[in-house]
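Batch manifest, entry 17 of 40.
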Amino acid sequence: MSDEKKKNLPPQAQEYQSFQQQREVKRPVLKNCLKAFLIGGSICLIGQAITTFYIYFFNFTEQTAGNPTVATLIFFTMILTGLGVYDHLGQFAGAGTAVPVTGFGNAVISSAIEHKTEGYILGVGGSMFKVAGPVIVYGVFSAFVVALIKTILIQWGGL
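Output type: structure tokens
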């Protein structure tokens, strides 16, 4: 709370604020950042291994191996979320599991599992699209804007 807002509080509230600050547990920020970096980096390392696997065994190129790699990572994340493993990993690593594409897969399947009792169509399907829908719309719109800018630059800039 800012000092300006503290001045407007009654004396008892100010006393409580100082008591609360003394009792507040200090978060190990550096430790949390290190865990997020290690787990997020490990997920990315696994993604790179999957990409290399697709390139080596299925004759994909570096450009075409990306889509099956993302699908594979999301598939594994959904299985691990369904088994309850990914939640424990997320508790340990924090943002390290939310930043890679696996965080998206976890969010989609978690909401589907949560609303399973409402039925497969309205519960599972509806809740999955509540999470995935805005992401897909944002992705499509962003791709459109980038393509439009690129087209304008090519037409007018001669790139």
